[in-house]
Amino acid sequence: MSTFHILNGDCLAEKFPKNMEGEIIIWREALIDGPVSDNNFFENRKKFITENHDSESDYEELVVKEFQRIQNIPEDSSVFFWFEDDLFCQEL
Questions:
Q1: Where's the DUF1835 domain (predicted)?
Q2: Domain residues for 12?
């Protein structure tokens, strides 16, 4: 059985223990702002982020490839989501 750790962003990835068994996948999308419809999802997200967040990062490499890794996790795997109490997840 494979183990996967899905980390919420690069800051957590920098602090994450290097000796943990399993593969690390970094989630780099907040999905709390901008379009999230199924139609042309990644194309619309990339356009929105580029236009509204002054970002020139490689969206395909940093976001899409990691998302595809999540989609390809084998069914019998253990998956751990390291999101805890992120600010945008908290109720006020």
A1: 14-85
A2: 3-32+59-87
What span, in angstroms and rounded, lies between the C-alpha atoms of 89 and 74?
A: 27
- Residue 92, pLDDT > 80, answer no
One-letter identity of residue 23: E
Query: Is 1 within 8 Å of 77 (Cβ atoms)?
Result: yes
Structural domain tally of the chain?
A: 1
The SS3 call for residue 26 is strand
Q: Which pTM value belongs to this model?
A: 0.82
Is residue 76 domain-resident? Answer: yes
- Is residue 79 classed as helix, strand or coil in its secondary structure? strand
On whether the CB atoms of residues 45 and 63 are closer than 8 A, the answer is: yes
